[in-house]
Design brief:
It is a single chain. The chain has a 5-stranded mixed β-sheet with strand order 1-5-4-3-2. The radius of gyration is 31 Å and the shape is rod-shaped. With 161 residues, it is of the alpha+beta class.
Length: 161
């Protein structure tokens, strides 16, 4: 490849219209970093980290060094008239704070509930060991244990006259 020649893209690129709005509203440095990383993904030089749980099949890119911004995208079949068979479809470009980006991706994908990662699901679920056990037996009353003195009777002692 001669110097200055761009590599041939491996994938097409498309944006959810709301993701394009996200990108345009992001700070300038974040926008530049996100576009550079997306170019690497389109050229198959980089692939984001796979998401799990309800967002399985999608990937994330950590945009900045402070790890505050994410790009969430998926690979899908490109339209028939496209030059590429598959395309990178960007769903969101948002800050990670409070899992905002993942909540928004869930809404944009039409998920009825908040997306959960496998780790979050495991943390919120009840361990199977707790559901399999029967009732906990109560310890015996100490006065009924052999070898221990019996407690005093509760009858009232009246002195005789």
């Amino acid at each position: 490849m001669s110097q200055g020649q761009q590599p041939k893209p491996a994938f097409g690129l498309s944006f959810d219209p709301r993701a394009l709005t996200d990108l345009l509203q992001a700070p300038g440095d974040i926008r530049d970093l996100a576009l550079a990383q997306l170019q690497d993904v389109v050229n198959a030089d980089r692939f984001g980290t796979r998401l799990t749980g309800d967002l399985e099949g999608y990937r994330k890119l950590v945009v900045d060094a402070r790890k505050e911004w994410r790009v969430v995208y998926g690979l899908r079949a490109a339209p028939e008239q496209a030059l590429h068979r598959r395309e990178v479809h960007v769903v969101a470009v948002r800050p990670r704070t409070g899992n905002d980006v993942y909540d928004e991706v869930g809404r944009r994908l039409g998920l009825a509930r908040r997306p959960l990662s496998a780790r979050t699901h495991a943390a919120r679920s009840r361990p199977p060991q707790l559901t399999m056990r029967g009732p906990v037996p109560r310890p015996p009353v100490p006065s009924l244990m052999p070898g221990l003195p019996r407690p005093a009777s509760t009858s009232v002692h009246r002195p005789t006259r």
